[in-house]
TrEMBL record, chain A:
Gene3D superfamilies attached to this UniProt entry: 3.40.50.920, 3.40.50.970
Organism of this sequence: Nocardiopsis kunsanensis
EC number: 1.2.4.4
Keyword Oxidoreductase: yes
InterPro entries xref list: THDP-binding, Transketo_C/PFOR_II, Transketolase-like_Pyr-bd, Transketolase_C
Name this polypeptide is given: 3-methyl-2-oxobutanoate dehydrogenase (2-methylpropanoyl-transferring)
Alphabetized UniProt keyword annotations: Oxidoreductase, Pyruvate
Lineage, uppermost ranks: Bacteria, Bacillati, Actinomycetota, Actinomycetes, Streptosporangiales
Source taxon at top rank: Bacteria
GO MF assignments: branched-chain 2-oxo acid dehydrogenase activity; magnesium ion binding
A biological process term (GO) from this entry: response to nutrient
From TrEMBL, chain B:
CDD domains xrefs: TPP_E1_PDC_ADC_BCADC
Keyword Lipid biosynthesis: no
InterPro entries: Alpha-ketoacid_DH_E1_comp, DH_E1, PdhA/BkdA, THDP-binding
Stretches assigned to the Dehydrogenase E1 component domain: 46-319
Protein name listed in UniProt: Pyruvate dehydrogenase E1 component subunit alpha
Known cofactor(s): thiamine diphosphate
Organism: Nocardiopsis kunsanensis
Family matches, as NCBIfam families: PDH_E1_alph_x (TIGR03181)
Length: 330, 361
């Protein structure tokens, strides 16, 4: 059904992606904690049980390893499960299933058993959440061979990347930035816009490149806007596909400006931001006028709501890092 | 909700054969048909031969490691023979004999234990899941396979194997709970062989028996003499039929004994003595089955010779297959990580290929 372009929130886009995938493919099943009649604590599965029936979208016992482990079995047996982990830090009980089975089964069976499944993880902070509700856990998954790890930052990417993730013959960990759930933007539902393996230049610029993803993309865009008012032209690249990573696209962007700052909310040590920084440095060294800088969360447990603003990469910290990129006029 | 008492296992493990091979009357369960017992006996003999042969291959350095099911062959044979063709078996690393009893090629089953990077056989061919190495994680996969089949209206039953140690894992709990809530047709078959490497059962649980754990999930539990092939078959037949009929999951605990060390790398003299092991020799599942069949005069000399010959053929195939096997190819390490290799993996595969070519390989 042709829908054209529509202005919807990321939450609505994800809901729409689940519905469209379920309509097109009867083997797509959605389950997890509170995803049934309640529609999920973030309402991503709102109305799906009512419209598709209790077999297709159902609540499970409260046990994340059980949810992911059952999804593995269903995927082995002809289904395409899409499971919700409710919150980043509550996905940890499923870690063994994800690392030892979800990620390794294709390899371990020499390609005979594929696991086409999606583990949706609402993640990161900026929502005033209490402890265990704001972790940026993407590095754990990105570090695990066999997983595809995606982190959309806008409704259009959320819709198309989730559609693509569900259709993929491999398991995907789909990181959804909670604080961006409610921001609205245009989504063209008719024209497929695949994102796996690609980055996206979300703002053109000539002086330096901000490389970011997920919840930090709007912050980077805001920083670029402020910089523009101060006469500096910043390009913003949304990495969005953490695994596989778009080395070619990101490096092309960095070479075009010769300066780069990596911005991510997760603690910086041994993080996706570290990896991006290393990759860009290894590949673009002779195009760089300054060392690649990182703006990340501190290496501390995620702070309580009243202090979380100190943890999040903000516009000022990003612009300070840009100022440090050895400009000739300094 | 079932009556509480209906969920509890029988007071003693179900037994249909004494160690001497004499039959024991059971109020409900009849002795399986003689033809079935003969087929099971053959499977037991093959299972024992497979265990012995694999042990020898380890000593010759041709297998990296082998966790033997010596003494547990009745459980191995019973688990496979209780299933129909369309059913699924979920074995662990100690269930090589069960996979072979279900028809998987013996050499392919040994792939991982040989030290290769993949699990060998095609799981869909005989509907035998890859042997699981982490404990209890595969029980959840069994629930998922069963639930998917049920959603499609198929009457598939899944036999999920684990040992006593695995019942302490969280995934054992989650699997039984999920299976019960979703009425998934899974028979959880626990081979209680008294040891998890060196740790005895008393350190795994304070429950009256492992089968008693079923009631906590609303699952009917049952216990069976795991060295009595007639009882194992009779109980598993009943539970598989119940699961197939829509009765939801079942939990069966087989009381058996790990006659050998955990693997060849283990030294069991550090945690148990011969006095403990010896009484179990009299309860050997093979001797018991043989005594019954001889008593019934169905195990003729000829038939026994044919069965022995078949077991020797399997052992010979194992020796030849392991010998013929070439070393794993390094280049294939990158081929199955994703359906389509990432650009990074393609780069790394090229790097390794270049490194190997410079080494002259």
């Amino acid at each position: 059904m042709a829908e054209g372009s529509t202005k919807i929130s990321m939450a609505q886009a994800l809901n729409r992606a689940l519905r469209d995938a379920m309509t097109e493919d009867p083997t797509v099943y959605v389950f997890g904690e509170d995803v049934g009649p309640l529609g999920g604590v973030f309402r991503i599965t709102d109305g799906i049980t009512a419209d598709f029936g209790e077999d297709r979208c159902f609540d499970t016992p409260l046990a994340e390893s059980g949810i992911v482990g059952m999804a593995v079995g269903m995927a082995m047996n002809g289904m395409r499960p899409v499971v919700e982990m409710q919150f980043d830090a509550f996905a940890y009980p499923a870690f063994e299933q994800v690392v030892s089975h979800v990620a390794k089964t294709r390899n371990r069976t020499r390609g005979k058993v594929a696991l086409p499944m999606v583990v949706r993880v609402p993640y990161a902070g900026g929502i005033g959440g209490v402890e265990h509700h704001c972790d940026s856990s993407e590095a754990y998954y990105a570090h695990t061979p066999g997983l595809t790890v995606l982190a959309p930052s806008n409704p259009a990417d959320a819709y198309w990347m989730l559609r693509e993730a569900i259709a993929l013959p491999d398991p995907v960990v789909f990181m959804e930035p909670k604080k961006l759930y409610w921001g609205k933007d245009e989504v063209d539902l008719d024209t497929p816009a695949p994102g796996i393996g690609t980055s996206s230049v979300v703002r053109e610029g000539t002086d330096a490149t901000l490389i970011t993803y997920g919840p930090s993309v709007p912050t980077a865009l805001e920083a670029a806007e402020t910089a523009a008012q101060e006469g500096r032209s910043l390009q913003v690249v949304d990495a969005r596909s953490l695994v596989p990573f778009d080395d070619a696209g990101v490096c092309e962007a960095v070479r075009s400006t010769g300066r780069a700052v990596v911005v991510a909310e997760a603690s910086g040590f041994a993080s996706v931001a570290s990896e991006i920084t290393a990759r860009v440095t290894e590949r673009c060294f002779h195009s760089l006028a300054a060392p690649v800088r990182r703006v990340t969360g501190f290496d501390i447990p995620y702070p309580p709501p009243k202090l979380e603003r100190h943890q999040l990469p903000g516009v000022d910290r990003i612009l300070d890092a840009v100022d440090d990129l050895q400009w000739e006029d300094q | 909700m079932a009556d509480d008492q209906d969920l509890l296992p029988s007071e003693q493990p179900v037994q249909l054969l004494e160690p001497s091979g004499r039959t024991v009357e059971h109020p409900v369960l009849p002795l399986p048909h003689t033809d079935r017992l003969l087929a099971a006996y053959e499977s037991l003999v093959v299972g024992r031969r497979v265990n012995d042969q694999a042990g020898a291959l380890v000593r010759q350095g041709k297998l990296a490691v082998y966790p033997s099911s010596h003494g547990q062959e009745a459980c191995q044979a019973g688990a496979a023979l209780a299933l129909a063709e369309g059913d699924w078996l979920f074995p662990t690393y100690r269930d090589t004999a069960a996979a072979i009893a279900r028809g998987v090629d013996p050499v392919q089953v040994l792939t991982l234990l040989k030290g290769d990077w993949h699990s060998g056989y095609d799981p869909y061919e005989k509907r035998v899941a890859p042997q699981a190495t982490p404990l209890a994680t595969q029980l959840l996969h069994a629930v998922g396979v069963a639930h998917a089949a049920r959603l499609r209206g198929e009457d598939t039953v899944v036999m999920a194997l684990c040992g006593d140690g695995a019942t302490s894992e969280g995934d054992f709990h989650e699997a039984l709970n999920f299976a019960a809530v979703f009425k998934a047709p899974v028979v959880f078959f626990v081979q209680n062989n008294e040891y998890a490497i060196s740790v005895p059962l008393a350190r795994q649980t304070a429950a009256p028996s492992l089968a008693h754990k079923g009631i906590g999930y609303g699952i009917k539990g049952e216990r069976v003499d795991g060295n009595d092939i007639a009882a194992v078959l009779a109980v598993l037949d009943r539970e598989v039929a119940a699961a197939r009929a829509g009765g939801g999951p079942r939990l069966v605990e087989a009381h058996t004994y790990r006659m050998q060390a955990h693997t060849n790398a283990d030294d069991d003299t550090r945690y148990r003595d011969g006095e403990e092991v010896d009484p179990w020799r009299e309860r050997d599942p093979l001797l018991r089955a043989e005594a019954l069949l001889k008593r019934r005069r169905v195990l003729t000399k000829d038939r026994k010779a044919r069965i022995t010959e078949h077991a020797e053929e399997v052992a010979a195939a194992m020796r030849a297959g392991v010998d013929a096997d070439t070393d794993p190819a390094p280049s294939e390490l990158f081929a199955h990580v994703y359906a389509t290799p990432t650009p990074q993996l393609t780069e790394q595969a090229a790097f390794l290929a270049d490194e190997l070519s410079r080494e002259g390989n």
